[in-house]
Design brief:
The protein is built from five helices and no strands. The chain is an all-alpha fold. The chain has one domain. Helix 1 packs antiparallel against helix 2, helix 1 runs parallel beside helix 3 and helix 2 packs antiparallel against helix 3. The longest helix has 28 residues. It starts with 5 loop residues before the first helix and ends with a helix. The relative contact order is 0.16.
Length: 124
């Protein structure tokens, strides 16, 4: 693996911080309790995937993961708005618990990251 130039290193650092900030926003939007210890699960998953992306020069795949995460966040928010407008749905009380949301976000990040790797590197 070739050494990164200073410009590439700074670009990778800024991109990484933006991705972590975006994951933090997604976590903030979905969790009921802002001090929940479950918030660490998707954040640790994002840091692990980001470390993998940086060491293997697949930062674009992490972009796919963050984009997919926001797609799922938007879908969950639309479902929550619909439930508020049309009445409660029993399944939503299970799906919106902090424990389920934390695992869901971590799995979504991992799945979209792998999908991004497969899209960028077909022989993966």
């Amino acid at each position: 693996m070739e050494a990164l130039t200073l410009k590439k290193s700074i670009g990778a650092l800024v991109t990484s911080l933006i991705y972590l900030f975006a994951v933090g926003i997604a976590i903030t939007l979905l969790f009921k309790n802002p001090t929940s210890p479950y918030r660490a699960v998707p954040l640790v998953a994002a840091v692990g995937l980001l470390a993998h992306a940086l060491t293997n020069d697949t930062l674009r795949a992490m972009g796919y993961a963050v984009g997919g995460l926001f797609g799922v966040v938007a879908l969950l928010l639309l479902v929550a708005i619909a439930a508020a407008a049309f009445g409660p749905v029993p399944l939503l009380s299970v799906v919106t618990s902090d424990a389920v949301i934390s695992v869901l976000l971590a799995v979504v990040l991992a799945l979209f990251y792998v999908a991004g790797l497969r899209r960028l590197e077909p022989n993966f």
